Each structure stands twice: as structure tokens, then as C-alpha cells.
Amino acid sequence: MNVSVQWEGVYPALLTPFTANDELDLPLFETNLHAQLDAGVHGFIIGGSLGEASTLLNEEKIALLQSALGVAQGRVPVLVNIAEQGTKQAIARAREAEANGADGLMLLPPMRYPADARETVTFFKSVAEETTLPIMIYNNPYDYKIMTTVAMFAELSALPNIQAVKESTRDLTNVTRMRNAFGDRFKLMGGVDTLALEALLLGCDGWVGGLVDAFPQETMAIYDLVKAGQLAEALAIYRWFMPLLELDIHPKLVQYIKLAATATGIGSEYVRAPRLPLVGTEREQVLHVIKTAMANRPVLTTAQ
């Protein structure tokens, strides 16, 4: 029985923990999931950019899905990210996720090939038509070089299971463009940590987070305070959080955020090649950011 996806609240883009032998560390994965649930997150996303999707085997993605479903126990939806080079492969992964109990999908445009607007829309439609699962389109032209425009979403709006957008264009005016064009037809989820509070204030329904993997309580506090209209309290936490949130917009975001999750006791530094763990000055610089923040963690205000 699938859990209904509301496309609201905080959805961690989960890290994929590995052992020293480069195998999935499912016990540590579940430790992180429990920390997220204890903080009150609203859903899980498996195998995104932070989850090192491009290095995961299909059977590993299914193992992560089954582990997350076991922890969630129907309390929050579990989404699987689909990031494939070919339409046929993307359809196969979507069907596989649905068959194994996923509650929804996050869907990226074609990988590696810079598809034009017609090709991108056709790709999204082709996947959506082959699954009954609700879908969030990941709109991130900064990293993936394909912009899903308002005109393209107008075509996609004909498919009822394309329901949400991870808004990672880094152009905050796009939130207003989408609202002006579609009202509430698409749920909008802010997808850039360093713009998260602003995206929520502009009307995003939720936040797909990265540093939530290491700091779930602080992430949830910001979201809850914004939704309660306690903006001064939210801003105080956000300003404290910003040096950490900036770790999310670097090519080594996986290593940086894994180091943060290690520091807070809910992750490890192991990454999968070609990524390598941080060393030397770079590691010390990132650790300094993390340790400074942890030494000054704010007393969290409860939303009223």
C-alpha cells in the first residue's frame, strides 16, 4: 500500500553510506533515517546527487529502497530518484521502483546528452506514462545543463502524475513565474540549501535538503518557523546555518556533507570512487566550518 505523497515539508536527499569495503552500510543508513524521522521530516529521497546515484548498482538502489520502507513503516513516503541516459533505462528504473514499493519518483532529464525542449518533454512524458507513481521533476539547469521552462511545464501539466518540481534553477524569480503560470497545479520544493528560506517565503511548499542529512533538527526548525510566520526566529537559525549550507553548492558536496554527518554521529566519510575522501588542507577547512558551527549551535525555537 503506497503512502500518499503530499509534496510538502522537508524531504532529505539522502546520503548513501558505504563501508570501508565499498559495500552499502545499511545499519548506518537506518541510523540516519531514524534521526530524520525523529526530527519530523516529511519524506525520503533515495539515490539523488547526494546519494551518489551515478555509482550505485540497480540492486543497491532497491536495497536502499527496501531499507527505507522498513524504517518508514508508512509514516512518510519514500521516493526513488531516476537519473538515466536513455529513455528505455529510465522507464525500466521507474517500473522497478514501483514494483518494489516506492511511493513516488524524482525524475531528472536525460543524463549526458543536452536534450532540447521537445526531446526533454518527450522523455519526461514517456517515463510518466509508464508508471502510476507521482513524479517530481528535478529542474536543475545549473548542474545538469537542461532547463525545464514554464512552456515545457505547460505541456507536462497534461500528465496528472507529474505533480511537483524540485526548484533548483538558482533563479528565485522562477518560483513566482511557476505560480503565475500554474497556480497550485505543481507543488514546488526548494532544492538549493543556500536559497531555502527565500524559496519558502516566496511560496514553495517544501524543501529538498542536503545539510538536513547532518542537521535534521535545525533544518526542520527553519521550515516549521517559516510556516508559522515566525520569520525572525527562522532567520536567526538560517544565518547560523549558512556556512554549512554552502557546503551543498560545491562539486564535492557529497564528501563535504558526509563529513558533516560524520561529525554529528549519523554518517561516515566513505564515498564511492571516483570520489575520494577529503584529505589535507581541504579536509581541515571543511572541518573548521563544521566544528565552528557545532560549537555555536543555536537553541532551537519551537514554532507556535
TrEMBL record:
Cited CDD domains: DHDPS-like
Stored Gene3D superfamilies: Aldolase class I
Biological process per Gene Ontology, one example term: N-acetylneuraminate catabolic process
Positions annotated as active site in the UniProt record: 138 (proton donor/acceptor), 166 (schiff-base intermediate with substrate)
Signal sequence residues: none
Keywords associated with the record: Lyase
TM helices/strands, residue ranges: none
Keyword Transcription regulation carried by entry: no
An annotated GO cellular component: cytosol
Superkingdom of the organism of origin: Bacteria
Alphabetized InterPro entries for the sequence: Aldolase_TIM, DapA-like
UniProt binding sites for pyruvate: 208
GO molecular function: N-acetylneuraminate lyase activity
Family: Belongs to the DapA family.
Name used for this protein in its record: Dihydrodipicolinate synthase family protein
Annotated source species: Spirosoma pollinicola
